[in-house]
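Give me structure tokens for this 257-residue protein.
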Amino acid sequence: SALIVSGANAEGLPKRLSYDELQELTYLEVKGSGIANQCPVIKGGADSFAFKPGKYQVKKLCLEPTSFKVKAESPFKGGPTDYQATKLMTRLTYTLDEIEGPLDVGSDGSLKFEEKDGIDYAAVTVQLPGGERVPFLFTVKELVATGKPEAFSGEFLVPSYRGSSFLDPKGRGGSQGYDNAVAIPAGGAGDEEELAKENIKDTSALTGKISFSVAKSNTETGEVGGVFESVQPSDTDLGSKTPKEVKIEGIWYAQLE
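Here you go.
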């Protein structure tokens, strides 16, 4: 599909390599090339999920986004609120990798995967056509996905983009810093609610939903891969902003043991 050919940043992307080919590269061959941000491709195998029912361990699960879209108002007057294409502001460091967890393949062909460990979050900032920047934490923390190989999905946790000890420009934080802006006495100006939103820092986690589809598998090497689509909230600036909806599409790769 076109999704696999293009990248979130398709300018002069390196050729896609298999897992074994990646292992043969030296540090200097990888450094600065963009290869470290790519998931491996599967050579050979079947265009379906060919593994027998049983209990497996997923290793080296890699999720590489190929597009980031943000639900926002149209830059044109009277246009609809829809997912808009964005421009990547951070560098090629948005791929999740080395994720692992148990996978159950049922006798009816159903799958159940639980995310347990790995590099399962990445801070990314994208820019909307109007110039607004949207930071978010691309993640699949505590994901439990169920369904058939052609479509298995589940919900995951999206932690706060900033921790509770992060201090804003007026020195206010969740577990540290001032309780309110020191030079401005709180209340009495009719904007108590706005002030409270800035004063009370909220680091609670939100939820997102991701759906996977298997496009290829190789039982000899234990490799499986396909495409994914994830919808998750963006950064809330510790509770003071309403999060935007971010839609992330991309490719994934894993090894089963």
